[in-house]
Design a protein that fits this description.
alpha+beta; Jelly Rolls; 13% strand
């Protein structure tokens, strides 16, 4: 896509008028690019619609047969290389996975207790000032998302052999070599630090609406993403592959308060408690190709010229009944999970957290993704190392810095070889 449009991106604090003007400009440029291929936007979108409809039909058929929409694979089979081709095919088609028994129930439960000891010893509840993140503030129960990053439990899980094994397995589902380049090292993770969730029994939680996290306006407006999504914009939509990492690992994300500086192949979390499927759990639209629908939908003539179907800066990428109703038919929750299981979903995937009233049991997780070593993640690792050494909140998150003076924080002396490589302290 050598003639991709170059735009002066509006600053993330730009006025609404500036954002609307930039939206009109990029939509006109992309529409012209598609039409230059000899196809209309409507023709290209029809290809995507048909592909999505076929996936929705598969999901509907699984439900009618009483089968799990989510793939489920035992950790022991991943570690032993016994995953079948049928299981791999379902993983690639659905873009999500539950790994059973990645950690023992006893280990996960011990980590859960350790986190409680860590925050209580350091008087977190006496000093907690409320959610600094508007998006997670919407869940309603306080605190539910703890801005804690450097506990022993989190770091032990991040640098564990089990985590490295599953991350490498998931990274291998991606095409990490294409266009004559190697885009990332599938065997090495960058230990992207994220928070924890602890939701107590009896709580009411509003959950989180359907959204995706790969970016906002940068997905249309930056050179790297225009190249990553080149097949959607140059008339070769049949060649679009949501598993091709080309150009994703170098491009910067659009600045703003909801950005993720790292390239994640999969988002993920590790269960620290048993959770039933009907207790406010994660749901996804398990169709990796759905990003093509989301990217092309704003170009259709029924969408105002200055609107990206609700996508803007400083908010997550929304999926709504108004613009994306067919996709929502496929929204599917995870099966029951036990402490020690892990849950993963493709980085582009639309997801939500269901609301719950009077929750039964705890709903506790550590957010740990698969973020393979690549130029983009190596650059972010510089700030991560500094945050780790000082106990600060990582740069992608609100500047709360609760842990700077905490006792019991995981230290550099406790890093193993995997942890040191993940932080860029060794090769």
């Amino acid at each position: 896509m050598t003639d991709a449009p170059h735009l002066a991106l509006p600053h993330w604090e730009s006025t609404p008028d500036d954002l609307r003007a930039a939206t009109r400009e990029i939509k006109a440029a992309i529409r012209a690019r598609i039409e230059a291929s000899g196809r209309t936007v409507e023709e290209v979108f029809a290809v995507v619609e048909a592909r999505i409809a076929a996936r929705i039909a598969e999901i509907r058929a699984d439900r009618e047969r009483g089968e799990s929409v989510w793939p489920v694979i035992d950790y022991a089979d991943i570690a032993a290389g016994r995953v079948t081709e049928a299981q791999l095919d379902k993983l690639r088609r659905r873009g999500c996975l539950v790994v059973r028994g990645q950690f023992s129930h006893e280990q996960a439960s011990a980590w859960d207790r350790d986190i409680v000891d860590y925050v209580e010893t350091n008087h977190f509840f006496e000093t907690y000032t409320g959610p600094a993140d508007d998006f997670f503030a919407s869940v309603g129960s306080k605190p539910e998302i703890y801005p804690i990053y450097w506990s022993t439990a989190q770091m032990q899980a991040r640098q564990s052999e089990q985590m490295a094994t599953v991350q490498a397995f998931l990274n291998a589902q991606w095409k990490h070599e294409s266009q004559g380049q190697t885009w990332f090292d599938p065997s090495r993770d960058s230990l992207y630090p994220d928070r924890i969730r602890r939701r107590p029994p009896g709580i009411d939680s509003a959950g989180l609406g359907t959204h995706s996290d790969p970016g906002t306006l940068d997905l249309w407006m930056t050179r790297a993403y225009q190249l990553a999504f080149r097949h959607l914009f140059d008339g070769t939509v049949e060649d679009y592959d949501p598993w091709d990492a080309a150009y994703r690992t170098a491009g910067p994300q659009y600045p703003g308060s909801t950005m993720c500086s790292a390239f994640r192949t999969f988002q993920g979390w590790t269960a620290l408690s048993d959770m039933d499927h009907d207790q406010g759990v994660l749901h996804t639209i398990p169709i990796p190709e759905a990003m093509a629908y989301l990217m092309l939908r704003p170009l259709l003539p029924d969408v105002p010229a200055d609107d990206m179907c609700g996508v803007t800066v400083n908010q997550t990428f929304p999926t709504s009944e108004r613009w994306h109703a067919p996709l929502l038919e496929a929204l599917s929750g995870i099966p029951d999970v036990r402490a020690g299981d892990t849950v993963w979903w493709h980085c582009d995937m639309v997801h939500s957290v269901a609301p719950v009233t009077d929750q039964r049991g705890w709903g506790n997780v550590m957010y740990i993704p698969a973020a393979p070593w690549c130029p983009r993640n190596e650059a972010y690792a510089v700030s991560v190392r500094e945050a780790f050494r000082t106990g600060s909140s990582p740069a992608d998150f609100p500047e709360e810095h609760y842990e700077r003076d905490w006792v019991g924080r995981f230290g550099e002396e406790s890093l193993n070889a995997t942890g040191r490589r993940g932080l860029g302290l060794s090769v």
